[in-house]
Structures are given as C-alpha cells and as structure tokens.
Specification:
Strand content: 15-25%
Helix content: 25-40%
GO molecular function: 5'-3' DNA helicase activity; ATP binding; hydrolase activity
Catalytic activity: ATP + H2O = ADP + phosphate + H(+)
Number of strands: 18
Structural class: alpha/beta
Largest sheet: 6 strands, parallel
CATH class of the largest domain: Alpha Beta
Shape: globular
CATH topology of the largest domain: Rossmann fold
Enzyme class: isomerase
Distance between the termini: 27 Å
Protein name: ATP-dependent DNA helicase
Pfam families: PIF1
C-alpha cells in the first residue's frame, strides 16, 4: 500500500544524501511529510540516531515525525534576550550542549511557523556551541547540515515581538539555500486530481485569488443541502469545540436512536509531565476515544500500510490479539476503510492501540498509547493539515483565505 518516490522527491533525497543544505516546499498534498520520513530514515542509517536532530516548529508537527520541538532540542526556551545571552544559557545546559555537539544534521519541519529572528538565534547558538570544530565553527550552523520543510502559504510565524518576519526574509536564508541552488518545490499533487480544483487551490495561496477561483468555490456552496445521518463526509471547522460538538451529536444519535453500544478507550501516558502535556495540547491524539458501530472515524497514524487520513466506518468489535497472535479479552473496533486515492479498494482492519513518542536525542521523553482513530464527522482546519480527506460537506466556517486554504488543501475532490 506504500508508494515509491516521485522523480522530484528523489532529486531532493539525493541532494540531502550528498550533504547539501536543503529547503523544500510544495502545496498541500505533494508528499512533503512522506518524503521527510524517508529522509529521516536514510539519514539515521547513514549517520546514526544521535547525530540526526528531528525537530519541528510545533508540537503537533514534531509528534507526527517522531521528534521534538526545535526549542526543546536547541535548549533556547522562549528565545528571550540577546543572541549572546541565549548562547551562554545553552552552553550552561550540559544536555543541550551535548546535543549540539553531536549533531550532524538538523531537520526542522513546519518552517513557516518559525520566525526569522528565532532561525538566526539557532544559527548563532550552533556556531558558538561548536568551537571544537575549529574548521567548522565559522561555517553557518557550525557546519551542521540543515534541512527545512514547510509551506509558506499556510500558517505564518509567531513570536514575542510585534514585528515577526518569515525565515526567507533573512540573509541567512539566502546564504543557506537560494544562492547555492538548494531550494526545491514539489509540484506533483497526490491528493487531488481535478484540474480546476487544483487551480483554484493554488489561487487561494495568494493574497488575492482571481475571479475564476472565487466563482469556483462559490458554486460549491452546499449550505442548502440537507445532511442526513449517518453523514458521509467531513465538515471542516475552525475550533476543537465545534468539531467535538458535531462529532458528539452524531455519536449520540447512533447510541440513542439506533441502540448501538458505546465503547470507550482511555489513553495510557508515560514520561515527563511537561512533555506528556504535548499530546493533549498540541497533538491530534485523543485522551479518550468513544466509538460505536456506525461511527465515522479518521485514521490519525500510518498503520500497517494504511495511510494517515483514511476515512472509515466502525463495522464491528472483536477481541484483540497480543504480540504472539493470541486473542485477548479486550475488544477493539473493526474499521472498514473506504476506497480513496490512497486505497484502491475497501479494506477492513481490527484497530488496536499504537504508541506515539516525543523524543529528544533519541531519548523517549513521553509516550501515549491509544487507538489511532478520531471521530470523523468533523475536524478542525489545523488538524486536517496532517491528514487527507476524501469527502467534505462545507467549509463555510473557514472565514479567512488562510483557513480556506488549510481546509480545502486537504480535500481530494470538489462537488
């Protein structure tokens, strides 16, 4: 069920393996994360686990790639103070100093949400912490290979000050990527396959979409269509509370009107409290999963060749199996995943708990064991970024062009 790399993805992988500093971007659905996971695997095989720093600008993105936030890795906290003061603080932090000293490759996902100011602090800290590399201490990032990934058409950077700039506004960015030709754009979209829809989505990445794109989305307004239960699509909304309300309504209908039994699964968390909180505050991994037969669900992790984002329906509950293949008492949902661009034909699978990690320097700081499922009648635009939808009802709640792009960028086809 997995696919091979496209030609343009292979070119990026080759540049990375040659030791180049690389920035690559692309529209939603071009396989940025899929490629990044391949890159991480190849680099760890080449250099070792401790030498490859896998980070992201947000906790949600970090958990998705099995890494940590860039702030945690770098030991810079909130990046308050001067570059010199921050570097001194990092030098005094033995664990952070050791991480920088060992690092051969620094990976940062969701680079659009990291400000130019923090990016430049990271570079300064790296040079100052790595003086024993005498021939490299004058190089950018102290000679560390830098790989950054993200879509600047999505969520902008955040920062402590009023004036926060994109990373590409800095001279450092130009030195690392543009002047040496290490800037790549993924263009092949695996998620959508309709030409007009693709063109309209690309227009939404701009500040001023053209009239044709505006007309296209206006003609898709499905607000006059009656939604019946069970609803065969996903509604993309702006807040978790709205998504929870819609999902609870549909689940309650299954339980009360159709007499389906509710099954509840609580997450099992371990690790340092500060990092365990990341699962609740910054990830799409629920503390509690409640499902019944007929529940619409979305897969939130790649499992046994099934891709993150697949839609499915709970059709049964069966006894789970242990690592030896023996049946256990606990029952888990059987999900029928629908045919989609990711799955050529419907497929049923017993869904058992899986484990997520927050790691730093290959040390597991926190873990969560939970079913890799969320109720799937509604989802927020931000959480929809890390998965792909086959159908949707409406995006009328997405009140800004940014939200519209985040929401529609995850959709396969328009109707």
């Amino acid at each position: 069920m997995s696919r091979s790399l496209s030609d343009e993805q292979r070119r990026i992988l080759n540049a990375v393996l040659q030791g180049d500093n690389v920035f690559y971007t692309g529209n939603a659905g071009t396989g940025k994360t899929y490629l990044l996971l391949k890159i991480i695997s190849k680099l760890k095989s080449k250099f070792g686990k401790h030498e490859v720093a896998v980070t992201a600008s947000t906790g949600l993105a970090a958990i998705s790639i099995g890494g940590s936030t860039i702030h945690s890795f770098a030991g810079i906290g909130l990046a308050k103070g001067t570059k010199q003061d921050i570097a001194l603080a990092v030098r005094a932090n033995s664990k952070a100093r050791k991480r920088w000293s060992k690092c051969k490759v620094l990976i940062i996902d969701e680079i659009s949400q990291l400000s130019a100011e923090v990016f430049q602090i990271l570079e300064f800290v790296a040079r100052k912490i790595r003086p024993f590399h005498k021939t490299k201490s004058k190089l950018f990032f102290g000679g560390i290979q830098v790989i950054v990934v993200g879509d600047f058409g999505q969520i902008p950077p955040v920062g402590l000050g009023k004036h926060v700039h994109y990373c590409f506004d800095s001279e450092l960015w130009v030195e690392l990527f543009h002047e040496k030709g290490h800037h790549f754009v993924l263009t092949k979209i695996f998620r959508q396959n309709e030409a007009r829809f693709l063109a309209a989505l690309n227009e939404c990445r701009k500040a001023y979409p053209n009239d044709e794109a505006i007309e296209f989305f206006q003609n898709l307004d499905g607000s006059n269509q009656e939604i019946t239960l069970p609803f065969d699509g996903v509604e993309i909304v702006t807040t978790n509370s709205k998504a929870d309300k819609i999902n609870t309504k549909h689940l309650d209908t299954l339980i009360s009107d159709k007499g389906m039994e509710n099954h509840t699964y609580e997450a099992v968390d371990e690790g340092k409290p500060a990092f365990v909180k990341m699962f609740t505050k910054e990830s799409n991994i629920p503390e509690k999963v409640q499902v019944a037969i007929g529940s619409k669900v979305i897969l939130i992790k790649n499992v046994d060749g099934l891709a993150n984002g697949l839609q499915g329906v709970v059709v049964d509950f069966q006894n789970g199996v242990d690592e030896n293949g023996e049946k256990i008492k606990e029952k888990y949902p059987v999900v029928e995943f629908k045919k989609s661009f990711k799955l050529k034909k419907p497929f049923r699978k017993l869904m058992q708990p899986v484990e997520w990690f927050v790691t730093l320097d290959d040390e597991v700081l926190a873990s969560r064991v939970q079913l890799p499922l969320r109720l799937g009648w509604a989802i927020t635009a931000h959480r929809s970024q890390v998965s792909s939808r086959a159908k949707f009802n409406k995006c009328s709640d997405l009140i800004t062009p940014l939200y519209l792009f985040l929401g529609d960028g995850t959709i396969v086809r328009a109707r």
